[in-house]
Amino acid sequence: MALKLSKTPTSDFIEYGRFRKKSSAMFLIIVVSIIIAAVLVYLGFLRHLKLFEGTWIVTFLSHVKTHLFAYTFLGLFYACLFGGLFFMLIPIEAFYVAALKKGLLTPYHILFMFLGLITSYSINYIIGLRFSKLSKNIVSPKKFYRVKILINKFGKLAILFFNIIGMGSQQLTAVLGVFRYNKTRLLIFSLTGQLIKYTIITAAALGLF
What's this model's pTM, rounded to 2 decimal places? Predict the structure, then answer.
């Protein structure tokens, strides 16, 4: 799906209400960071106080943690589900390499991993599609504009490239959701790029080159 662009050069792009948008984005990031920090502090230092013992939150977190550190099918699914969200900073690649070096990866693990990526990238797309204002507060307008240029100039190759290098691919799916880019095409090229990336990582980790 072609995206119509303004002919305004990037250097002339003006962000209106920049301070307000940045403030909203910073507030959202701070809130999410506080929630994540609170969860980590609780799991690391306050579990013995049993403040939330018996609640569904603790049960779910314990379930996720158990599967993550056991590198189960669900563990890899959760790593890709949460790490694939554009507002989370979880190094999926590091988790993958750790599982690979422990010899705990099978074709079924890869299947669950890509199911996690499909789910998280679909969520990113839907957030961009349905909550464009929220997405624009998290991803700066300049980045939106640059993505429009890249997609118009390089098309599917840009999606493939972002996913191979593993930088910004999560944000890209949210941005393209705002632009109502074809979801099927986006997922196909995103997953193809991810497959290439993890093939390279696997070969490197196993010393094949």
Answer: 0.71
